[in-house]
Amino acid sequence: MSPGKIDIKMQSPQVFTGEISVSNIGDSPLNVKVNKKRMMKNATTTLYADDGIATWINVDPAEFTLAPNEKKNIKYTITVPTNVNYYDAMGALQIVGTPTNSANNQTGSITTQVKQATAVVVPITLGFPGQIIESLSLISNNVPSVLISLMPSNLAYNVKNNGTVQAKMTNNVTVTGLFENQKIQTNGTVFPGDSYTLKTQWTPGFFDMGLYNVESNIKYGRDQQTQNLQTKNTILVSPVWIIILILLIVTIWIIRKKDIKSPLRIKIEKK
């Protein structure tokens, strides 16, 4: 398949046309279907939707059959509407190939038909001239209020891009307390109208205890990260060795209060 990615800088409104070459390098015929999608990505997940840029794309043909070693050109047209409300857009063409012949597995009177599809994704990035607005808002932050030392904790910051351009983000998280002064960094990119969760992890040490301040400073921008989004949280860290000590003291107190005798007796005789 060629090209593997499409980058377009367009005026609005404008029509852009191009071609993608798809080849069947296998040894069996394939039924090919081209899906038009809007693409949203974060650190762990890629989501596809049918709105936004997906409605601007047309492909011809959208469905066809490829014989082994056959190649076909797909024509695509991207029509930018007059009411574009953001500067950057991320879309994709999903090219899915399914064998024309399926394998049948029969167990008793039940027959199961198995088809294995192959999918290739061609990302489409569109840039439009217009007002550049860099704006992120913090939707939520998931930071635990209480932790036990040596217990890993996830620090998650969910942001939404309210601007007109994509935002490249760097989240600098600083954890400070009695025995800790640690800096953690995560990165990500969020497109206009989308949300993104910046995730990181912090584990208190064995001797960590008391209140710890967690300060998050999210720097962002389309090209240069000149904007800031800040938030603060407090975590109470309870040391595991204190918990063990308290349990031991309570256990000894209960044994003495109830006058529980040891099942082992030692008798010393003098000769």
Describe the structure.
The structure is a single chain. This protein is mainly β and 271 residues long. It has two domains: 6-127, Immunoglobulins (Immunoglobulin-like, Sandwich); 136-257, Immunoglobulin-like. Helix content is 7%, strand content 56%. Strand 15 and strand 16 form a beta hairpin. The mean pLDDT is 84.
What are the key terms here?
271 residues; mainly beta; Immunoglobulin-like; 2 domains; 6-stranded mixed sheet; 5-stranded mixed sheet
Secondary structure tally: strands: 19
Label the structural class: mainly beta
The description of the largest β-sheet is: 6 strands, mixed
Number of discrete helical segments: 1
The CATH topology annotation of the largest domain reads as Immunoglobulin-like
Q: Which class of the largest domain in CATH terms?
A: Mainly Beta
Strand content: over 45%
The CATH superfamily of the largest domain turns out to be: Immunoglobulins
